[in-house]
Amino acid sequence: MKLHISVLLLLLFLMSIPSLSEASTSSLQAKINEAPEGSIVEIQAGEYEGPLVISKPITIVGNEEVLLRSCDAEPVVAISGVGVTLKNLQIEHCGAEKEETAISITGSQHVLQGIKIDTRRFGIKLEDANEVIIRDSEIVGRKQGNGIDLWKSNRNQLENVKISSVSDGFYLEQSNENLILKNTIENSRYGMHLMYSNDNALRHNLSSSNVTGAMLMETERTSVDGNAFYANKKSVNAQGLLLYEAYETDVIENEFFSNRIGVYIEKAANNQVESNKIMDNFIGVQMKNANDNEISKNTFIGNVNEAQAIESANNDVNHNYWDAASKVDINVDGASEISFTADPYFLTLANYVPEYQLFFQAPGLILLQNLLKSPPDQLLTDSSPFMEMTIDVEKETSSHAGLWTISIMMIVVSSSVFILGRKRI
């Protein structure tokens, strides 16, 4: 009897204690409020309900596995002021409203490192935020908000962040002088999307399996350097890189591999596309209403159609390697004496009747293109294409060997069947 009474009293005592997460959250916000500027606040392993508000220069560090979650309209974590540091935290945002976000940032000189975000809407929003560093982090979405969204935010560094299943991996609007470095964006709409933003740099990022690897619209002086754009072909409007009303953009030493269109340039001028590997795309480079651009020292290999241009003039196309070009080097200067020409006949036809895209590379259309050539001023011409590739491309020796092996085996098997059949007769 005494034992039963003791158990009952213990149960009543436990029921009277607030839940661990509620008690921890309240004490966590209080601990942040009480912490002096410049101090370090450690969060012990466990799950905590948000939101949290941080508005002074302190460092918040998760000890082992710390999960902050919230489904409220407010951000799970709201950062403002100057010099906040957030490290080693998992953030779960389950809100359903259109503009909700897991982390919101204003102010300047904040650092986020080792942050893992699972969000139904936006991952991180920067608004009027400057000189912020976000690195070594991960964002997984539901394709209903952007991964990292910048609005009027300048001189920020976004480095080594893996983003997947969002609307736009990085979205910049009216945001200048930002560095997007060594990130991976996949399974999204646009990997990197810049609007009305100038003097930004996209360097050494991997953008794959998106609708568009990167889009630059109404931008100036963007540097697109050393990135890899792979398999961006999930739509009839897909491309590796889209330059739309972009100016003075440098696209240098990137890889465009297996996209619907490698590089699409429309209504853009004074851009430089140099020393890129443009390989195994449906169309290597396409230009429309694009003038005064330079396309040089690129390597075009294995594209279904190397290049197309329409209503584009005064573009300097020279010294590229085209595997579809006829090559004769009489004076041994490394450049062919035979020009490479891309006729926009099909593109012009499909522009008037989009359904004709279904007949791309059809024998009948190829015959018509040869018979009804476009005017010389509409042709994209490389007057001195290079004889050798401008960039090293790995030779598929192993795959060729495999094909030969399979072919030989099929011949042997077929011969054996034929011989055995004759013996039985």
Number of domains: 2
Mean pLDDT: 84
Low-confidence stretches: 11-23, 395-415, 421-425
Largest sheet: 22 strands, parallel
CATH first level of the largest domain: which class? Mainly Beta
Please report which band the strand proportion falls in: under 5%, 5-15%, 15-25%, 25-35%, 35-45% or over 45%: 35-45%
Distance between the termini: 96 Å
- What is the helix content? 10-25%
Class of secondary structure makeup: alpha/beta
Shape: elongated
CATH topology of the largest domain: Pectate Lyase C-like
Number of helices: 5
Brief summary:
The protein is of the alpha/beta class and 425 residues long. 17% of the residues lie in helices and 39% in strands.
Describe the structure.
The chain has 425 residues and is α/β, with parallel strands linked by helices. It has 2 domains: 38-172, Single-stranded right-handed beta-helix, Pectin lyase-like (Pectate Lyase C-like, 3 Solenoid), CATH 2.160.20; 189-401, Pectate Lyase C-like. It is 17% helix and 39% strand. The longest helix is centred in the last third of the chain and has 28 residues, at 397-424. The termini are far apart. Mean pLDDT is 84; it is low at 11-23, 395-415 and 421-425.
Topology (elements, then pairings):
Layout: H1 2-15, H2 20-34, E1 40-43, E2 46-49, E3 52-54, E4 59-62, E5 66-70, E6 77-79, E7 85-93, E8 101-108, E9 111-119, E10 122-130, E11 133-140, E12 148-151, E13 157-164, E14 168-173, E15 179-181, E16 184-186, E17 190-195, E18 201-203, E19 206-208, E20 212-217, E21 223-225, E22 228-230, E23 239-244, E24 250-252, E25 255-257, E26 261-266, E27 272-274, E28 277-279, E29 283-288, E30 294-296, E31 299-301, E32 305-310, E33 316-318, E34 321-322, E35 340-342, H3 345-352, H4 363-371, E36 380-382, H5 397-424
